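A reminder from the course coordinator: this example appears on the midterm review sheet, so study it carefully.

Given structure:
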């Protein structure tokens, strides 16, 4: 009969890793809220979490990876609403209404967590496009554009629709350009509506 001790040891290691991950994320959440994402180092997070610096780097890579991990819960909630939520974000509404609802959900995410999104999307070249969340948004938008019968390749057009929802542009529009969130929303809605063929 196999010795059960290694299995128990593996379970303990997994539980420790999970605990450490939650401690790191909680420490990062607190520090980012107190100081702003750009003013927190990975060493600060490790110190607050009570773990080795190497643990933080090994698990998250860099500050952008940590930011993306903190966003995961919010992004998954939006993805869940796309599949199982109430219309217009969820199934059952016309494609244009669903597309505008997704725009609104992503704008709300930017408004609430713009600093995290900015850190996650600009930590390395093309970081935004390598996330699972972006892939999910892109696929959903492409499907809706196909259902709308837009001119052009829906896959390419989906990138165009999502482009103004990048954190760097949103930060620029809300900061140096001085636009209100409602003005950004109106501008993106106007662009999306123009993509839909006239009835």
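Designed residues:
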């Amino acid at each position: 009969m196999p010795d059960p001790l290694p299995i128990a040891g593996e379970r303990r290691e997994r539980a420790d890793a999970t605990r450490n991950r939650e401690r790191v994320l909680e420490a990062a959440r607190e520090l980012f809220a107190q100081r702003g994402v750009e003013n927190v180092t990975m060493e600060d997070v490790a110190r607050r979490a009570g773990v080795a610096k190497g643990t933080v780097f090994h698990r998250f890579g860099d500050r952008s990876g940590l930011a993306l991990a903190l966003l995961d819960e919010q992004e998954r909630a939006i993805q869940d609403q796309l599949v199982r939520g109430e219309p217009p974000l969820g199934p059952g509404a016309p494609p244009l209404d669903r597309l505008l609802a997704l725009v609104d959900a992503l704008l709300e995410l930017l408004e609430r967590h713009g600093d995290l999104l900015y850190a996650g999307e600009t930590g390395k070249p093309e970081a935004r496009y390598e996330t699972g969340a972006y892939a999910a948004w892109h696929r959903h938008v492409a499907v809706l554009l196909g259902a709308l019968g837009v001119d052009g390749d829906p896959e390419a057009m989906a990138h165009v629709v999502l482009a103004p929802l990048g954190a760097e542009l949103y930060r620029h529009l809300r900061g140096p350009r001085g636009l209100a969130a409602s003005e950004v929303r109106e501008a993106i809605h106007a662009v999306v509506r123009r993509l839909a063929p006239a009835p």
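The radius of gyration is 20 Å. The chain has a mean pLDDT of 91.
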